Here is the input.
Amino acid sequence: MSARIVIIEDDPIIHEIFRNAMKEAGYEVYSAEDGKTGLDLINQVKPHLVVTDLNVPEMSGFYLSSVLRGDPAFKDMPVIVVTGMPVSYDRNGKVQVGTESYSPQCDLFLVKPVRPATLRDAVHKLLTERAQTSAEG
Here is the structure.
């Protein structure tokens, strides 16, 4: 059985690139164009990992990540947040995205443009780490 991935991205071109990259890697892919629909889809299909854009309509990627971290069913599920804004970390461990500061609720940030191979490698790494953690725990 292949891992289930939910992709939440409102840009149709990027969405299709991400979707194709995940399908070519052998994953079962589900898609949404906004955060609210994405959360409904996550609750329905129980994915192994989520890739979400930071600035999607209805619910931002950061808010979606915090909702998932607060849900016992999804608190350990890897989440990748993709953004077109510069990302850095301050000395307190908060994430600086553009001019905003956030407490990280996701496993990885990727800055656009994201090459399909970069996304595939990141997804593979996080799913492998998650499987190892589950086997140990």
Notes: The helical segments are 12-24, 35-45, 61-69, 116-136. The longest strand covers residues 4-8.
